Amino acid sequence: MKKSMPYLFLLPGIVLLIFFLMVPLFAILWPTLFPDGFSLSAYTSFFTDEYYIEILIRTIRIALIAAIVCIILGVPSAYFISRCSAKWKGILIAISIFPMLTNSVVRSFAWINILGKNGVINNLLMAIGIVDEPIGMLYTEFSVLIGTIYLFLPLMIMTLVGVMDQIDNDMMEAAESLGASKLKAFIKVVLPLSVPGILTGAVLVFTGALTAYTTPQLLGGNKSLVLATLIYQRAMTLNDWSGAGVIAAVMIIITLVVMKVLNLIAAKLDKRGEIDA
Amino acid sequence: MRRYKGLTIFAILVFAFLFIPLLIIAVTAFGSEPTISFPIKGFSLEWFGKALSSESFRKAFILSIQIAFLATILALIIGIPAAYALSRYSVKGRKFIKSFFLSPTIVPGIVVGYALFQFVVIKLKMPVFEGLLLGHFLVVLPYIIRVVGGSLEQFDYSIEEVAWSLGCNKFLAFFKVVLPNISSGIISAFLLAFINSFNNIPVSMFLSGPGITTLPASLMSYVEYNYDPTVSAVSVLLMLATIIIMFIVEKTLGISALAK
């Protein structure tokens, strides 16, 4: 086979990616730096505008809390799955995968039904007389957060199950037979071995939550904007293309930095923990 | 597991958190009230009728299926040879090229959507269908590279070499020896790509045109302005389709094929 053959196989994809991803990205980012001549004014006006800063901080806060909550809920659940009998494992994995395959509109819609003014929680609270008027839970940061956690928890669980399945049950038994309690054995044996998986999951949840559009749009609306909904609003409703470009740049940079940093940590901890990005 | 009482209770609560919201949707789809209520006060199939007879949902559904199918096929045609080249040959800058192929997953979907909107819709004035197809192709290509690439890593290339030495030409050997051996990887790549294209919203929101939109995008606009159980009914139909796919996958490839 000729030496050029592999490059021929790679060429169509590379050309398409350059022409339809890199060029378009360049085209939206270039005007933010070179409106006419180099200038950082688009960025300084973004970072000095309190309204934008509030949205930026809210976005990071939601992504961060979502990642932490997903770790807290995901680690024990994944551990539970990995120690189940084969039959139950299959069922629980199916329950975890099912939401991942369900459309995010449907998953957000579920929380509109639960948190809305006529929703399940308000109906329940009014029926037992705790409140007289429905509480406004929808279109708040809280509802976006719940929806985001709901969106990404299955991803965290599945990532962790993959890692915890590799941990030998004998190690737990050894720790226990040497006198460690179940909890202590878990903390001393399983948790350290799961760290690369936890980091991988955290990167996926954090970057996913940082850039998710559907859930904040449906559960936060215009009252609790995040970067993804802001970029859509700037571009499509206000035709502020330079503003949308700046937000795009900010989102890409945060994503790259978080991936790089957590990858470095993961690589330090365990060579196998590196995410293939 | 009996011995881990606290853990069991914790896990049950987490799985309830994952499952109950979807269950509530399913129940509300059968309600008789004109707005969504839970628990339902009467039983009716009216909303399913409404969902199925809605012209705009039906058109959007057909478009979603077409786009997901074509984008996935296109991504397979371009992705499989690329994944093969990356795994088979010591290509210069292999790691970099691989990350390049996976880059659509690193750039946020909403940014991909916006960049394509500017370039494809505004600058090139590409028709809506072609634009959507292109956008979805970019979204699903990384799945093909990753999953097919993963399969190829497991493949023993000495089998291919045997075929060569027995006189099979390289082109034929690829189709007769390599492809059949990675077929389960290709099928799961196909499914993952198809599902992810079908479910994609950010790219579709930017690239949809008047009257031409995918099902999730049209559901999304519907949900923003309406609060009747039609969406619940559509959701139930979508979930049913998901369950059927999961069931088939479980019986053939094993359910973990969908968790990559």
Description:
The complex is a heterodimer of chains A (277) and B (260). Chain A has a single domain (46-273), classed as MetI-like (MetI-like fold). Helices cover 78% and strands 0% of the residues of chain A. Chain A contains 12 helices and no strands. Chain A has helices spanning 5-33, 41-48, 50-82, 86-101, 104-115, 120-127, 141-164, 169-177, 182-211, 214-219, 227-237, 241-269. The longest helix of chain A is centred in the first third of the chain and has 33 residues, at 50-82. Chain A is globular. With 260 residues, chain B is mainly α. Chain B folds into 2 domains: 1-44; 54-258, MetI-like (MetI-like fold, Orthogonal Bundle), CATH 1.10.3720.10. Chain B is built from 12 helices and no strands. The two termini of chain B are 27 Å apart. Chains A and B meet through α1, α3, α4, α5 and α7 of A and α1, α3, α4, α5 and α6 of B.
Report low-confidence residues of chain A grouped into runs of 5 or more. 273-277
Structural class call of chain B reads: mainly alpha
CATH architectural label of the largest domain in chain B: Orthogonal Bundle
Major beta sheet summary of chain B: none
* The CATH top-level class label of chain A: Mainly Alpha
SSE topology string of chain A: HHHHHHHHHHHH
Rg of chain B over CA atoms, rounded to whole Å, is 22 Å
**Quaternary structure state of the chains depicted:** heterodimer
Chains forming the largest contact = A-B, 87 and 88 residues
Distance between the termini of chain A: 30 Å
Shape of chain B: globular
CATH superfamily annotation of chain A: MetI-like
Helix/strand order of chain B, N-terminal first: HHHHHHHHHHHH
